[in-house]
Amino acid sequence: MARFAAIKSALTSALLAVAVAGVPLAQARGFQDGPAVGGAATVLVTQLPRQGQETYELIRRGGPFPYEKDGAVFGNRERLLPIKTRGYYREYTVKTPGSRDRGARRIVCGGPQKTPHACYYTADHYASFLKIVE
Question: What is the residue range of the signal peptide feature (predicted)?
Answer without folding.
Answer: 1-28
